[in-house]
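Comment thread on ticket #2218

A.B. wrote:
> Attaching the input chain for the structure job we discussed in standup.
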Amino acid sequence: QVQLVESGGGLVQAGGSLRLSCAASGTIFSINAMGWYRQAPGKQRELVAAITSGGSTNYADSVKGRFTISTNNAKNTVYLQMSSLKPEDTAVYYCNADIRTGLGLWSHDYWGQGTQVTVSS
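C.D. wrote:
> Ran it. Output below, let me know if you need it in another format.
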């Protein structure tokens, strides 16, 4: 059983910064990739940023240059440093991880419960 627990959301003014954290716990053999998605009201969930176990990163065009994803592999934790926040960044942010729970087993996607980020203008 695997759990992803997010923290760090909140209310911030436009131009401000926030740092999201997501810690994975439970039966973890290996983590292939971790990432952050977001879903604004009335919109589909979209990828914000992702990072592989090898350190390769991928960002949505809308956040490039403003957001940075990183990991602490020893703590099975992924971070999202968000700067120069805009009102359109307002959404529920979800942590995602592709985790293998045992040797020889397929990996599966796991999701956090979501954390609200609100950017006021």
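A.B. wrote:
> Thanks. Noting for the ticket: The mean pLDDT is 96.
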